[in-house]
Amino acid sequence: MSTAESQPWVERYRPKSIDEVASQQHAVNVLRKALTSANLPHMLFYGPPGTGKTSTILALARQLYGPELMRSRVLELNASDERGISVVRDKIKSFARAAVSAPNPDYPSPPYKIVILDEADSMTQDAQGALRRIMEQYSRITRFCLVCNYVTRIIEPVASRCSKFRFRPLDVASTEARLLHIAQMEGLRLNPDLVPVLIRSSEGDMRRSITYLQSIARLASARGGDVRDMSPTTVSELAGAVPTYVIQSLVRAIGIDSDDINDELPPRATGSTDFDVIERAVRHVVREGYSSLQVVLQLHDYIISHPLLSAKRKTKCALHLGATDKSLMDGGEESLQLLALCLALHEDVIGPP
């Protein structure tokens, strides 16, 4: 198998130029002008995952220097792995102060290098403080591009030295066009119902939607069938979504009315208390191996969009859902956290308004 064939589709179809970047017109328009001038500011790209932040700066660097000169002119670091002050003082500073290599006559090749710090919001504050001084000292020959999801985690002295670009979640039309393009390039004939499910499951994250598409293609190939035979349910399973009937069974146990329930739980036993019903529903979810974090997310969507719950009750539920989400992210025991959440939601739903 060739290197190209074994390459993940996310990398294979990463934009090669900034004109190929989808749905980020503001950033693309500004950066396109940078290609015609030697004046590129320090930049801060922020926004949700999978919206093209890293792809955009890599495409810009490729157009500025070409694939060969990029090796000496561009330093790309994942700040979540290399985020300490020692890395800033040693690796980044050494690169920033090094002399600029000879230009490539076939490309603009401006007289500066570029340091790309991916996931810069994971850097410690000490490291960001050291970075600020390097940005000032070597700005003549080195420009920085910080890429992050949460701009509030970048200290103000660093953020104020950068031109900020907010990357928005991709719109449905752009994501659909990109997925259909990839499917065409890979020779796939998709079920028309498959693309909307891919987009909905990825929640505006292009990287996830492309990964799901590749997973569907690999699964179809392993089964010896066609991608057209793959159902939307299979996409949801690959995305880790909890089946709708499981969520409906859980909200019914909590006390929220639910229509069209396909309930796999046995009928309520005589003399069972509300706690017994909720505990049994939670045990069923945990036994099936569903992610508690995913259950919390889908419970949130179900409750917030419920037409019969008042805004006050939804607010109470949202507070408990948020607290449980944090506890699970901090490493809380899944079954206990989910049980405590469902009991709290039960009180929010049937208790006094």
UniProtKB/TrEMBL annotation:
InterPro entries per the UniProt record, alphabetical: AAA+_ATPase (IPR003593), ATPase_AAA_core (IPR003959), DNA_pol3_clamp-load_cplx_C (IPR008921), DNA_Rep/Repair_Clamp_Loader (IPR050238), P-loop_NTPase (IPR027417), Rep_factorC_C (IPR013748), RFC_lid (IPR047854)
Keyword Nucleus: yes
Location within or outside the cell: Nucleus
Protein name from the UniProt record: Replication factor C subunit 2
Family indicated by similarity: Belongs to the activator 1 small subunits family.
Gene3D superfamilies: 1.10.8.60, 1.20.272.10, P-loop containing nucleotide triphosphate hydrolases
CDD domains: AAA, HLD_clamp_RFC
Xref: Pfam families: AAA, Rep_fac_C
PANTHER family with a match to the protein in the record: REPLICATION FACTOR C / DNA POLYMERASE III GAMMA-TAU SUBUNIT, REPLICATION FACTOR C SUBUNIT 4
TM spans (from-to): none
Sorted UniProt keywords: ATP-binding, DNA replication, Nucleotide-binding, Nucleus
GO CC annotation terms, alphabetical: DNA replication factor C complex; Elg1 RFC-like complex; nucleus
Domain of life assignment: Eukaryota
